[in-house]
Specification:
flat; 3-stranded mixed sheet; 3 strands; alpha+beta; 20% strand
Length: 123
């Protein structure tokens, strides 16, 4: 994507601070699940942050995502307290499941299942 330097800095700031918030998990949202912030994409007007989450040790990723979305306002408030002095606007948070790892695993499985004969050595 063609993000401006300002968007990139904003994204990294939000990713770092959300990671700290999720690591401490004072709200008890995650239980035993291990949730990390895979990526944050910010709109050009800095009003919306799309947060991609990587989840491990979770029986249902969709259920946990819904739980996180229910607590979105609380998470945004804690984020606002952390970054409030550095930014003018605390963006609206939109949470998504990061599927890059799963897609890579599927591609690896497909490649491994290919039946490719060895190359002929004719010289």
């Amino acid at each position: 994507m063609n993000e401006t330097t300002r968007q990139q800095k904003y994204s990294k700031l939000i990713q770092k601070d959300l990671s700290e918030i999720f690591q401490k998990d004072k709200m008890g949202i995650f239980g035993n699940a291990f949730v990390t912030i895979a990526d944050v994409l910010i709109t050009p007007d800095l009003s919306i942050a799309k947060v991609y989450l990587s989840m491990m040790l979770v029986p249902s990723k969709e259920a946990l995502l819904e739980k996180i979305r229910l607590h979105k306002s609380e998470i945004r408030k804690v984020l606002g307290n952390k970054i409030g002095k550095q930014v003018r606007i605390v963006p609206d948070l939109q949470f998504f499941i990061d599927e890059v790892e799963e897609k890579a695993s599927k591609i690896d499985t497909l490649i491994d299942s290919l039946d490719i004969p060895p190359a002929d050595e004719e010289e």
